[in-house]
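Weekly structure sync, notes
Attendees: PL, DS, HV (note-taker this week)

Item 1: Thiol peroxidase
DS walked through the input record. Source organism listed as Bifidobacterium actinocoloniiforme DSM 22766. Sequence as pasted into the shared doc:
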Amino acid sequence: MAQIQVGGTPTATVGTLPEVGGPAPAFTLAGEDLNDVVSSSFTGRKLILSIFPSLDTGVCSMSVRKFNQMAQELDDASVLCVSMDLPFALGRFCGAEGIKDAQAASAFRSSFGQDYGVTIAEGPMQGLLSRCVVVIDRGGKVAYTQQVAEVHDEPDYQAARQAVEALD
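Item 1 (cont.): predicted structure, written out as tokens:
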């Protein structure tokens, strides 16, 4: 279990992020159109997973906008924003905000949160995903992770960018 904070209250997740250098767990998520978004479709590309609780919070929606901007600027890298929000909410948000370079997907019907160790295990946000960033290299190995200590804080965008840029 990882220990995070939710509004200053210590809170546990169901596990820990995958180890840097190890294989990224395979996943199947629900896209905005309810079709499967599978990890194998990103093979051969650098991938940033931006994981967060819900688009209905200011920090989460801001992070999606910032990762969308990053996706525009990075060559040969994909950004996948993952939450427990329903695909309909993700689609509505991305359409209204002009999110076209980052892809959004829902973990609402998958084991993604358990597989990546990011499901919040207790408290009022139990069942949602904690705020994390995972960078995966072209071969499917984890190159960088960040478990944001306080779920209300933004991730380290610069560190995520540098991790992607360091990949060949």
